[in-house]
Design goal:
heterodimer; A: alpha+beta; Alpha-Beta Plaits; two-stranded antiparallel sheet; B: mainly alpha; 68% helix; binds iron/sulfur cluster; EC 7.1.1.- (chain A); translocase (chain A); NADH_quinone_OxRdtase_chainI (chain A)
Chain lengths: 181, 352
């Protein structure tokens, strides 16, 4: 087979340089045809998803909405090392470290912990690099199907520890489940 | 005609109503444009402000009002303000001569549904339309910005060249109707005697030219975003910008009306005569207004439909189409019309 006739996609077309006829050069026919193509779209089903009333179907591997994990004893894993913030391409993470007091051993696993931990959800691109960088298994992107809720205030998109840290009862339940297995 | 108090009141009411309708139509054209655009692209368009987004134009207006009034570093502050004012007023002035209906019979008087019936209505429209170029030209010039200036120059040369073709296409129609008063032209098209069936070529040329005159796609080179940012209104903000946008929609409305009146029988609908005689003057004429309105709405839709179908012309293509196709075509059309009108005389001359 010669190279000119090979067509991998099966849709190869020869370019034609034929002169346009008078009717083709008028373009009116083509314009009317085009108008009817767009008119057909007028009655098509619309693809818009009315967020936030409707939510898009997510694929099973979807991961969004970070969570700061607790360990089996309900202590926060994060040690405020800043590696997640460093790895974040969108520079969405900020934090402030604090030293664990003697009476806080049941709250934080490491001696140093994040007293403030914020992710700006307007910046985050949900790439998951923070999760990969974390040496303490502290931050994870969850399977939660809830997207960042819409809001009129920018401040509402900066998620602090109150919205990121895993709830204590969930941690306890997880620990119980693990023990049962 | 007697000029008395009632006459003045009657005319004022007609004028205010026409003005209000033009404004509302222009407002809702912006909404319709977005809706049509969305639907043609399989989207749903604005739907948050009010039911189906019906309050969107108000929200847009409010937004424009609250924007900063920006003045570029220009020596022509006065002209900078005059530009949008001219654009706006010319867009609104054309509606003065359009017959919205024949007449209503209220309070024992016949109310003519037209702001004024002048015998040079068509010339008036052409005159006002060409003054509209100044709005764009002055605005673009006073902006002291090369993109604005280029947009304005494009708009001006485009409008001037298409006005020629538009005028010539009109001549053929005028030869047939023998009058320039829009009222009489409407009356001549009673029933289904619409001019479009007699002058299809003239209609086509007029339609294409009115796209160019209103600066709509495929002839919107004046505000071609990919080359000229915003064209002549690049430097405008706040309500002055709003005026330009509004003027575009208002002139779209008036040119849709002019097309309906000149070629599609204006307020006439089949059986109007019968309705007026048997059902009543008022009902017959209200239906007529509805008919005109329906035609106008169709043409506004058509403008938008074309906008979201056809890509923009290149500048040389635009000039080529205007000067080398439309103008000769309309001259040929004039000749054909002349031959058809004088066919008996010509036949007699050759002795048939
Ligand atoms: S998911 Fe990516 S963008 Fe979002 S916080 Fe983590 S590293 Fe940054
Ligand atoms: S979440 Fe992980 S990477 Fe980020 S500061 Fe805490 S321990 Fe370090």
């Amino acid at each position: 087979m010669s190279i000119e006739t090979i067509s991998l996609s099966g849709r190869k077309k020869m370019v034609s340089n034929k002169e346009m006829t008078f009717w083709e050069r008028l373009y009116l026919v083509a314009i009317v045809k085009g108008l009817f193509i767009t008119l057909k779209h007028l009655f098509r089903k619309k693809v818009t998803i009315h967020y936030p009333e409707q939510v898009r179907e997510m694929s099973p591997v979807y991961r969004g909405q970070h969570q700061l994990k607790r360990d089996e004893q309900g202590r926060e894993n994060c040690t405020a090392c800043g590696l997640c913030a460093l790895s974040c391409p969108a520079e969405a993470i900020t934090m402030k470290a604090a030293e664990r007091k003697a009476d806080e051993k049941h709250l934080y696993r490491e001696e140093k912990y994040a007293s403030i931990y914020e992710i700006n959800m307007l910046r985050c691109i949900f790439c998951g690099l923070c999760e990969e960088a974390c040496p303490k298994d502290a931050i994870y992107l969850t399977t939660s199907k809830v997207l960042v809720p819409s809001s009129y205030e920018r401040e509402d998109f900066i998620f602090g520890k109150d919205r990121l840290v895993m709830p204590l009862d969930v941690a306890i339940k997880n620990a119980q489940l693990n023990n049962a297995n | 005609m007697m000029v008395d108090g009632a006459f003045i009141i009657e005319k004022s009411v007609v004028i205010v109503v026409v003005f209000a309708v033009t404004m509302i139509m222009a407002m809702y054209s912006t909404w319709a444009e977005r809706k049509v655009a969305a639907f043609l692209q399989d989207r749903v368009g604005p739907n948050r402000a009010g039911w189906g987004g019906l309050l969107q134009p108000l929200a847009d207006g409010m937004k424009l009002f609250s924007k900063e009034e920006f003045f570029p570093n220009t020596p022509n502050k006065f002209l900078f303000v005059v530009g949008p004012a001219i654009a706006m007023s010319t867009a609104l002035m054309t509606s003065a001569v359009i017959p919205w209906g024949d007449k209503l019979h209220v309070f024992g008087r016949d109310v003519i549904l037209q702001a004024t019936d002048i015998n040079i209505a068509l010339l008036y429209i052409f005159g006002v339309l060409s003054v509209g170029v100044y709005g764009i030209m002055i605005g673009g010039w006073a902006s002291n910005n090369k993109f604005s200036l280029m947009g304005a120059v494009r708009a001006a040369s485009q409008m001037v060249s298409y006005e020629v073709a538009m005028g010539l296409s009109m001549i053929a129609l005028l030869m047939m109707t023998g009058t320039m008063s829009l009222k009489e032209i409407s009356l001549q098209q009673q029933g289904m005697n619409w001019n479009v069936f007699y002058q299809p070529l003239s209609f086509l040329i007029f339609l294409i030219c009115s796209f160019a005159e209103t600066n709509r796609t495929p002839f919107d080179l004046a505000e071609c975003e990919s080359e000229l940012i915003g064209g002549y209104h690049t430097e405008y903000s706040s309500m002055k910008m709003g005026f330009y946008l509004f003027a575009e929609y208002a002139s779209m409305f008036t040119s849709a009306t002019i097309i309906s009146v000149l070629f599609f029988g204006g307020y006439n609908y089949p059986g109007m005569q019968w309705m007026v005689e048997n059902v009543g003057v008022n009902i017959g004429n209200v239906l007529g207004m509805v008919a005109l309105f329906a035609k106008v709405c169709f043409f506004i839709f058509f403008y938008m439909w074309v906008r979201w179908t056809i890509p923009r012309f290149r500048y040389d293509q635009l000039m080529h189409l205007g000067w080398r196709i439309l103008i000769p075509l309309s001259i040929v059309n004039i000749m054909i019309t002349g031959v058809v009108i004088l066919r008996h005389q010509i036949a007699a001359y050759f002795g048939f």
